[in-house]
Amino acid sequence: MPKLTRKHLFIVLGVIAALALAYFAFFREAPVSVQTGEAARGELMETIDAEGTTRYHDRYVVTAPVSGKMSRVGIHEGANIPQGFQITRVDPSPPKTTDPSQLEEPSVLPAAFPVLAPVSGRVTRVFETGEKILEAGTPIIEISKPSRLELVIDVLSRDATRIKPNMKVIVEDWGADKEPLRARVATVEPRAFTKVSALGVEEQRVNIICELIEPPRELGGNFRVDARIVLWEGKDVLQVPSNALFRSGEDWAVFAVERGRAALRKIRTGHRSRDSVEVLEGLAEGETVILHPPNTVSDGTKVSD
Amino acid sequence: MDAITDTVRKDHSPDQPLAVLQARGLSKVYHMGEVDVHALRDVDLDLFEGELAVLLGASGSGKSTLLNIIGGLDTPTSGTVTFRDHVLTEADDAALTEYRRDHVGFVFQFYNLIPSLTALENVQLITEIAVDPMDPAEALKLVGLGDRLHHFPAQLSGGEQQRVAIARAVAKQPDVLLCDEPTGALDYKTGKIVLEVIERVNRELNTTTAVITHNEAISKMADRVIRIGSGRIVSIETNEEKASPGELSW
Amino acid sequence: MVKQLLKLLSPLNKKLVRDINHLRGQVVATALVVACGVASFVAMQATYDSLLLSRDTYYSRYRFADVFSSVKRAPEGLEEDIRTIPGVAEVQTRVVSSVTIDLPDLPEPAQGRLVSVDLTRGSILNGLYVQRGRELADEARDEVLISGAFAEANGLNPGDSLNAVINGRWRRLSIAGIALSPEYIYEIRPGSIFPDNRRFGILWMSRRSAAAAFDMENAFNDVALTLAPGANEADVIERLDDVLEPYGGTGAIGRADQYSHRFVSNELSELEVFGTFIPAIFLGVVAFLLHLILSRLVGIEREQIGLLKAFGYSNRTIGLHYLKLAVLAIIGGIVIGIALGAWLGSGMTALYADFFRFPILEFTLPFSVVLWAFMISFAAAAIGAVTSVSKAVTTRPAEAMRPEPPADFRAGFLERSGLNRMFSAEVRMIARNLARHPIKALLSIVGISLSVALLFIGFYFYDAINRLIEIQFNRVQLEDVEVTFNEPLPSETRYELLNLPGVNRVETYRAVPVRLRFGSHSRRAGLIGMEQGGRLRNIVDKNLRDVRIPNEGIVLSTTLAESLGAAEGDEVTVEVTEGSRPVAKVAVADTVEEAVGMGVYMDSDALHRLLKESEVVSGAYLEVDEKYAQELYETLKNTPTVAGVGRPQAALDSFNETVGQTIGTSTAFLIGFACVIAFGVVYNGARIALSERGRELASLRVLGFTRREIGIILLGEQAILTGWAAPVGWAIGFVLCFATTRAIDAEIIRLPLVISVATFVYSFLIVAFAALLSGLLVAWRLRNLDLIEVLKTRE
Asked: What whole-number distance in Å separates Cα of residue C203 and Cα of residue C224?
């Protein structure tokens, strides 16, 4: 029986070291680093987002009562004027006649016509400013009643079919660092119109008129805002971040993380918001999902946060 | 087998000879191109337990060849060699290695120490692989080098180096000690000291010892003198009285 | 026949031949290392020379310009003013623009760079080489020449047609021919790192047609010029900028900054560097090996040398004899190396021809390279020979013939400290042998560690590039599609994009070219204004840290910040170089160590305020439902305002196809080279140890040690050396990796210093395996140790 020497100890240590090295080199599965999110319950809003423009509901265009020379218009856009305020005057031009007999009766000529504001309100447009000769009926200014401010949003005609009156509208980005405003859909115009989009494509669009609820004073007419028409809202909706989803064949799927490994799950989706998607089937609350799964992850791959 | 060896060792008496090594009909032929050299021709030899035998012969007589074969370093062209029960001539290289390792101690003309090991370590090298070794320091003390344990061969004289070689050979308590011209490289005085050591080892440990030499004078210290010439055993003489190495002169 | 030849030689030379034959195992091992060194030298230097020659010839024959600038719109008459700028030799004005191309086999639109060609006056600068087909005919309005790589990738031939959207209008163009230009040797979209030849190409159209298409009759929007000898580029650029500024000039660049040229130059300088230090490593090892071999030989022949000198041979003759031996030993290796190098070089050149489009790119092996190969190899041989032979050769004859005393071992550190008691005699033998020749042991360790280092750096590249891809495609670019517009479009575009088929998420951005100034430094860059809360494009640094866009201030790429000398908190002047050219001072809110590109980012609202404009958008990142992707691409192809459509996935696939493959091949070569070095060093070391200690080992056999046991003693020494080569090799490898990250053009790409555990493990394992193999080969010789012979001789 050869005695157990230190040599044997070294050999045993050496073998252990070699085995550890081999395991490390060949068998250890390095986990793929991923970012994760969670399937959670919460609010979800499905919206149609578009740009909208404000305008006053009640708008009055003041026109020239007669043809003649208009004096300077002394008011500017934005001014608030009371009812009856004199905007300008129009000196009627003499009737054009070639009958010399009528020219000799100056007493027939009427005095200048005053142009008065029919209602009190804010001047929202000034069409003519300086002295000039106008025809009767030419618009001079527009007065709007500031109390009823509405929002005009144009959407694709196919999207318009999903919008119904009284749907909630959220108005954002109307002023720096201001809270979003509330509005509701008043009318879905029945007639579509053709518009060339900014991308250069011809589209059929429909105007959605919305009523702003308690518009703040700083908000005037012709303001561009971001509007979100809420098609559907849920309070306790099970949802995942939309970047966890990918197509697996015809269906949507996610990678759930089970015991440190990715597990492919086909899911049924419901409503979709800007950031999240409703999960109807396939995931439970609290489960971890992989966000934007890299190509190196497939079913069963070891992953780490 | 060890039990038998032990009893034999205690029984230090040449009157009951036991052949430790037996050679029968040994021949060795070297083929050098077109010439055949017959180094050994039909040699029969016994080596007995505990004896000190001297193999005497001129250079080229075949004495070294004979030693090499008995020591398991070489194989004969024909004939058999038996060590106790083992037939060496039928053994393969691994078996021969084991034989040398466990049973034989060698001392050569040119010491053949490992230069990168101290005297003590040179002996330890052998005791580590031995079955029943002596304490290495003891072996060195036996050859009178107890105070040179940690010296390297470069720091030892020729005689001291040879003594380390002897210590190395005996430390494993071999059954057989084979010395090939142990004093060949040494001067007169140092040679005698080395012979003294060999004699003492043979006497105190009862190790069967064979010494090869061409020096006639040395044969006087042997139990038996085996003369070899031209590959044959010329004669075997027994010395009635063994001279001590100190009494030798050449 | 050989014997008769031998008879003709002088005795010394006969000895030479016989010695080489006797040492053939070691000679072969050394020759292999020589062959690798020479092969790498020849391959890289010759390829470098071939590339350089091709490039320089191309540039001069086709009059590649020195300075380039673009403007919004300048009248043709301005050309005269430019010509009169001192230092300007030739001027060429042209019309250049981006167009989208609808290819039948490509789902998404491809991007094209349309460049006008003056057919009346001919190309003064940046001439075209028509590879196939014919030149443009002036009368034909709808003819184009297309660039070579683009044509190849899409299988387009002269006579084919392609559809393109040019300035918002559909055109059907017919391909007159395939052309190459020195301006687009590397056909790559500005801003990209690697080419995507399927989705980007250059179209050349007659000046008249291009001008008509872009309303540029008698006007130009791009100019190139060459410098007169002795002209100062910076001065010319400054004057040119002054002339062009009123017309919306964006700032001129010199040739060094021209996109294609930059890549070619970078590649050339990399070749130069690698072509120097890799052969140097090999030849260093060769010098060492020859030193080992000759030292041993001289040691064995010590007495013979003494004899020769006693008989009247001069020192010089004897020294020369050994030098001849060294040279003869490596000559076979040099010849094989040159042949191998030529083969490798032509392969490398062919590979380059895929990426860099030259009219002719041929591999030539200049005689100078061959000569150099011989010279540096002989130099290595000389170093190896001189260091080993000089001492022996100058010893006095009587001394040389005296027998050597036993090797001088003394008590050393190991003994005095008592540590030696821990180890068996065998281990002590090994340790003391190593300690006796510490320099030799050290050099052996360095030699083997060079293999480890080579592998280390090879695997590092693999890891670094993987990391880069991970960062770029899994963290930074998370969009499915990026669209860019011809001109900034109103903000409602973002909603219109959402209406496109399959688009689920839109994040828009505003991009403007700017010049940043800080102190005396200025750099051109592209400023991108991004939405808050976006997640399709992220700013991520090398260590995967996410950087948020601050509400105010800019975020600078660290390289850019460093070249400006600006740091966090500094105020940098931002000059917008288009449109109304506003200038503003903006604080640097953060710097980010990006892996790719030199970006400048800011909050889009803040940018709109800076530009005093409404919320227009230059482009958008889209998240797309795969199911409707095809439909989306079709729609985008038909959208006139869309200038370009990018798909990160396509870029990644393209990358894997091109660069990914070359990495595989070069890694294989690297492993081969490293193994050759390890094999060479260990084989020689073990072989020489066998020669030196053969007697000792035979004695041990006599004393009863088995063959296996003495094998372990012999190889134990090599094993310890190889073991130490691991940490040394890792250290050298790490330094090399670090140096490489510094050497690569930091403005294009910054390799992250990421070294995986696998790199450490594999770099050592492979070398250990090679060492083990060569050791076993030597140990096999132990079978033939003549035990008896060893006892008779003294040495």
From this structure: 17
| Same domain (yes/no): C472, C490 | no
Q: Cα(A126)–Cα(A106) distance, rounded to whole angstroms?
A: 34
Last residue of a domain, one of C260, C286, C306: C260
- C98 occurs within a structural domain: yes
C664 and C790: one domain? Answer: yes
Looking at this protein, which amino acid is placed at residue B94?
A
Asked if C572 and C665 sit in the same domain, the reply is: no
Token pair listed for C244: 């062009």
Last residue of a domain, one of C599, C623, C646: C646
Same domain? For C241 and C98 the reply is: yes
DSSP H helix total and E strand total for chain A: 3, 21
Same domain flag for C521 and C580 = yes
Task: Indicate if C137 and C218 belong to the same structural domain.
Answer: yes
Q: How far is CA B127 from CA B121, B133, B172, C522, in A?
A: 9, 5, 6, 81
Residues C511, C616, single domain; the answer is yes
Tokens of B197: 């050591």
User: What φ, ψ does residue C680 adopt, rounded to 5°?
Assistant: -60, -50
CA distance A252 to chain C (A): 10
Chain centroid to Cα C180, Å, comes to 24
- Report all structural domains of chain B as residue ranges with CATH numbers, in order of start: 48-76+105-243 (3.40.50.300)
**Residue pair C502/C624 in contact by the 8 Å Cβ criterion:** yes
Return the exposure string of A199-219: e unless at least 16 CB atoms fall within 10 Å of the residue's CB, then b. bbbebebbbbbbbbeebeeeb
Q: Is A50 on the interface with C (CB under 8 A)?
A: yes
pLDDT of residue C403: 61
Q: Do C183 and C81 belong together in one domain? A: yes
Q: Which chain B residue's Cα is nearest to C695?
A: B112
Query: What's the whole-model pTM score?
Result: 0.78
Q: Say yes or no for a CB contact (<8 Å) between C492 and A247.
A: no
* Chain centre distance of CA C701: 53
pLDDT in tens, C328-343: 889 999 999 999 999 9
pLDDT at C409: 73
Looking at residue C281, its pLDDT comes to: 87
Range of the domain at C787: 437-478+654-795
Token pair in block for residue B196 = 């003294």
Number of structural domains (chain C) is: 3
| Residues B120, B150: Cα–Cα separation, whole Å | 6
Here the tokens at position C23 are: 């040492």
Interface test with C, best of A199, A223, A228 (most C CBs within 10 A): A199
Is C40 a member of any domain?
Answer: no
Question: Between chains, do C407 and B115 touch, taking CB under 8 Å as contact?
Answer: yes
- Separation between Cα atoms, residue C133 and residue C152, nearest integer Å: 14
Q: Does residue C402 lie in a domain region?
A: no
Taking only the tens place, the pLDDT of each residue in C209-263 is 999 999 899 999 999 999 999 989 999 999 999 999 888 888 899 998 898 998 8
Would you state the structure tokens that stand for residue C334, as one six-digit string?
């040099």
Chain C CB contacts of A21 below 8 Å = 761, 765
Q: Which amino acid is at C752?
A: P
Q: Based on C-alpha coordinates, what's the Rg of chain B?
A: 18
- Assigned domain for C145 exists: yes
Alpha-carbon distances of C531 from B96, C536, C606, C613, rounded to whole Å = 87, 10, 10, 16
